[in-house]
Amino acid sequence: MATISQLWTNTGSGLATLMFVYTIFKQFFPQFGDNLEPLFHRIFSPFYPYIQITFHEYSGEHFKRSEAYLGIQSYLSKDSSARAKKLKASTTKGSKSLVLSMDDKEEITDDFEGVRVWWQSKKEGASRQSFSFYPEADEKRFYMLRFHRRDREVIIKKYLDHVMREGKTIELKNRERKLYSNTPGQSHGNNTKWSHVTFEHPATFDTLAMEETKKEEIKSDLVKFSKSKDYYKKIGKAWKRGYLLFGPPGTGKSTMIAAMANFLEYDVYDLELTTVKDNTHLRRLLIETSAKSIIVIEDIDCSLNLTGQRKKKEEEEEDGDDKNMIEKKMMKNEGENKESKVTLSGLLNFIDGLWSACGGERIIVFTTNFVDKLDPALIRKGRMDKHIEMSYCCFEAFKVLAKNYLDVEESEMFEEIKRLLEVEEIKMTPADVGGNLLPKSEKEGAETCLKRLIEALKEEKEEAKRKVEEEAKKRKEEEEEKKRKKEKKAEMDAEKEKKKKIEENGEEECGV
Ligand SMILES: Nc1ncnc2c1ncn2[C@@H]1O[C@H](COP(=O)(O)OP(=O)(O)OP(=O)(O)O)[C@@H](O)[C@H]1O
Ligand SMILES: [Mg+2]
């Protein structure tokens, strides 16, 4: 007599055979297979411990690929490219590289918190026999997730979230990044709109000439920011951070922005304030920016109409070269800026008004050559959280440039360069140092370039000395002029006094 366990074994193998036959049958006669499936499920579901979820490529009425499907595709691409035997390569709009995903009818497993799941890529074929111009359009693709029913909780509460989150991260990594600008050429009615090109700037923190400690500090600040979504929520602040980059021209402010964007894999919005019509337009541009982006306003000191107000206020105080340079830049911008009515309060609202919180994960960067001339309200901590000074080339920064430009890490000429930069304190921007290190022909070797730099540094020293002497001479002349004027005034005052006295004496005599 058969025991109970034998009975179960026989039933099990019988069911397995039936399943096998059914699968073969379905492959050869898909149209019948689809019709029989519900019946099959009803018979077998009490013995079948697995749950299935399907994620269709197109769902809803709009012919748009489902976010869930694309997220799963990205999530599975990392494992399927390593494990699946049949792969499918496709390009997705806005993606910088081919996306490899498992081909139809492939299956891979995934493990999560000790739970195993099975993912299958499937296609519901066009059941009609008629000829179609677009056979692809008749096919419906979907992913099918299978898991044991005992794992239902973990899958529904945690795993699916994990898949979507990871998928989104991979999607963002693969996307082609963009550089947006609001140039007047792209005007829409009276207002400029964002237009974009692919962001391809090669600058990275490795190529940036700067002290290593400062670089590391900025990098860790950026990483901390990008991972602080929950923290910002906890403290009730919008998820954004302001950077102010200041320093003389050619010290790498724009390069630093490119390096930041490449480091965080963010898009860049280069905001040209002079073409923004008014505060409302500014707000609209802000709303149209996406998360994971850096919004840049270069030369903030010269690009605002409010500099006009400041100009009046500070005109008397400004002196020397700074004043001339600012005025030159402002005059240039004022020509383009006739239409702009953006005000300081409009800009402050842009940075931290209510609208600035929409989207989240944004970095705002201002650059300026003259930090002292900026309105304190604009750069106070909280608005511009981190102030970074980009300064003249130090020896450490030179070493980065020498390695990047010439592949040289050590040379006997380094000692002389170090002396010139550190002891003689010669000021040369990284842009100029780079210019001297750049080989001018195929024949020029590293040694020639380093010698050229040494010569240029010495010339710079002479030039600086000349400038100091000229300035001292000018100051002396000014002082002498002042002294002369003072003496003349004193003379005139004495003369006046004398006249007054004579007149008074005359009156007295008459009175007598
Ligand atoms: N710190 C740096 N590291 C590497 N390259 C640099 C650095 N600074 C300047 N350069 C080089 O000099 C060029 C000019 O630099 P950049 O445009 O970043 O200067 P900037 O500070 O933005 O100047 P400006 O104030 O005129 O806008 C860049 O193309 C870059 O190659
Ligand atoms: Mg710049």
TrEMBL record:
Its cofactor is Mg(2+). Residues 239-394 form the AAA+ ATPase domain. The gene is LOC104710701. SUPFAM superfamilies: P-loop containing nucleoside triphosphate hydrolases. Transmembrane segments: none annotated. Residues 460-477, 488-504 have a biased composition (Basic and acidic residues). This is AAA-ATPase At3g28580. InterPro entries: AAA+_ATPase, AAA_N_dom, At3g28540-like_C, ATPase_AAA_core, ATPase_AAA_CS, Mitochondrial_chaperone_BCS1, P-loop_NTPase. Belongs to the AAA ATPase family. BCS1 subfamily. Residues 460-512 are annotated as: Disordered. It comes from Camelina sativa. It catalyses: ATP + H2O = ADP + phosphate + H(+). Keywords: ATP-binding, Hydrolase, Magnesium, Nucleotide-binding.
